[in-house]
């Protein structure tokens, strides 16, 4: 880690010196040093080295009748520490160029490799209110509107998360509205498929993801908007019978969101109609609707989920509030078998969180308590979940952060 830090710091310093000398570039360095602690009374399905809790695990009964997953866990980690730089470059006529690079320290922590991970790596071209961005930045389904939480979950799995390679063009009038169209690829996980989470299913599709976003907003931070998203993946190139196949799972996702700010008060919310959006730390998947008896080629249908969250906050120096999330599995439009996905045997789930933070200069201290209740069961012919039982997880969480 020391070597990575020295190389990274040297790179930033050398780049800034040379760039400033050659073209008079302007730089803004930023980052944070952060430590987080959590405790939970139950084993959970997690991502990103465990600091993102998606849902509590179902019962796993041992030979004596005890539930193996009814076991607590706790961790203190600092790998969300982050360092970045924004560079304002030369103008090409009326076009302002700029770039951004930032990294965090939540890569592999198992001792087998480095722990630096790229977050935003993007070049931008701006003329008047038009922007062209090329590189890795936030997915519109998640970054269109974020909730405010203390934990690094940022509302997952109700809130999609993730930064992906993309080409985005947008028009943004800061006092009126924004319209954007993006062509996206996958990174850091990918969709769920026959070989687990992987980017290969989208790569083999030959078709990137597409999203369109539009919103109305004002300079105080109030906004309403929507996102329409499309993705088509190829789960397999060859069937179990040995034949080359051309299989696809195509799905549309629709998101509506809004936020209202007045003085120290903020209320925000988002609702999503989700079809096979497993590449973004949320639930879902797909199943087989038919199979060719000779070649083994299959057709698929995605599960349909509805997920929403709401956030209410008040304060500035002292800031408190609540977060609530809900997700429901409505199954597929056709009868399915062989379901593949994440949390596909959860019929519904909700989370309620209370949070409080204190900010002083560059410091922030925060505490959050979350209760999550997931209803597990068995899938019927359409993938809906029946005969459910409830699993509950309690998760207190604390953080201390220094930002610069």
Structure description:
There is one protein chain. The chain has 404 residues and is mainly β. It has a single domain, classed as Porin, CATH 2.40.160. It contains 3 helices and 24 strands. The chain has helices at 2-23, 140-143, 200-205, and strands at residues 26-40, 44-47, 52-56, 73-77, 82-92, 95-104, 117-127, 130-138, 163-172, 177-184, 191-193, 196-198, 209-217, 223-233, 249-262, 265-275, 284-291, 298-302, 304-315, 318-329, 337-342, 346-360, 363-379, 385-403. The longest helix has 22 residues, at 2-23. Residues 17-21 and 108-113 have low confidence and may be disordered.
List keywords for this structure.
mainly beta, 24 strands, Porin, 3 helices, 3-stranded antiparallel beta sheet, 404 residues
């Amino acid at each position: 880690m020391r070597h990575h830090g020295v190389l990274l710091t040297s790179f930033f310093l050398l780049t800034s010196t040379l760039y400033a000398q050659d073209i008079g570039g302007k730089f803004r360095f930023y980052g944070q040093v952060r430590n987080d602690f959590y405790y939970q009374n139950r084993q959970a399905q997690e991502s990103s080295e465990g600091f993102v809790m998606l849902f509590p695990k179902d019962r796993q009964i041992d030979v004596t009748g005890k539930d193996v997953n009814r076991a607590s866990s706790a961790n203190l980690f600092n790998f969300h520490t982050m360092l970045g730089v924004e560079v304002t470059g030369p103008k090409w006529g009326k076009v302002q160029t700029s770039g951004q690079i930032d990294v965090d320290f939540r890569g592999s922590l198992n001792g087998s490799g480095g722990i630096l991970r790229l977050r935003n790596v993007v070049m931008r071209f701006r003329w008047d209110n038009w922007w062209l961005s090329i590189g890795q930045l936030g997915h519109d389904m998640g970054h269109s509107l974020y909730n405010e939480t203390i934990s690094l979950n940022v509302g997952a799995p109700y809130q999609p998360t993730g930064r992906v390679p993309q080409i985005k063009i947008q028009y943004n009038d800061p006092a009126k509205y924004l319209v954007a169209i993006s062509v996206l690829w996958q990174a850091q996980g990918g969709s769920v498929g026959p070989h687990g989470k992987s980017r290969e299913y989208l790569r083999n599709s030959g078709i990137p993801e597409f999203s369109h976003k539009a919103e109305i907003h004002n300079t105080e931070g109030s906004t309403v908007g929507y996102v329409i998203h499309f993705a088509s993946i190829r789960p397999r190139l060859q069937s179990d019978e040995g034949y080359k196949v051309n299989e696809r799972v195509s799905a549309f996702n629709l998101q509506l969101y809004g936020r209202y700010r007045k003085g120290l008060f903020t209320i925000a919310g988002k609702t999503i109609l989700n079809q096979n959006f497993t590449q973004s730390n949320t639930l879902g998947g797909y199943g087989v609707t038919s199979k060719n008896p000779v070649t083994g080629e299959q057709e698929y249908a995605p599960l349909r989920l509805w997920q929403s969250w709401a956030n209410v906050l008040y304060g500035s120096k002292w800031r408190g509030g609540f977060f609530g999330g809900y997700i429901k599995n409505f199954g597929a439009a056709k009868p399915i078998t062989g379901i593949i996905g994440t949390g596909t045997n959860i019929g519904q789930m909700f989370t309620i969180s209370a949070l409080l933070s204190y900010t002083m200069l560059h410091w922030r201290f925060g505490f959050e308590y979350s209760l999550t209740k997931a209803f597990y069961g068995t899938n019927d012919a359409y993938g809906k979940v029946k005969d459910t039982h409830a699993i509950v997880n309690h998760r207190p969480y604390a953080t201390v952060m220094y930002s610069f």
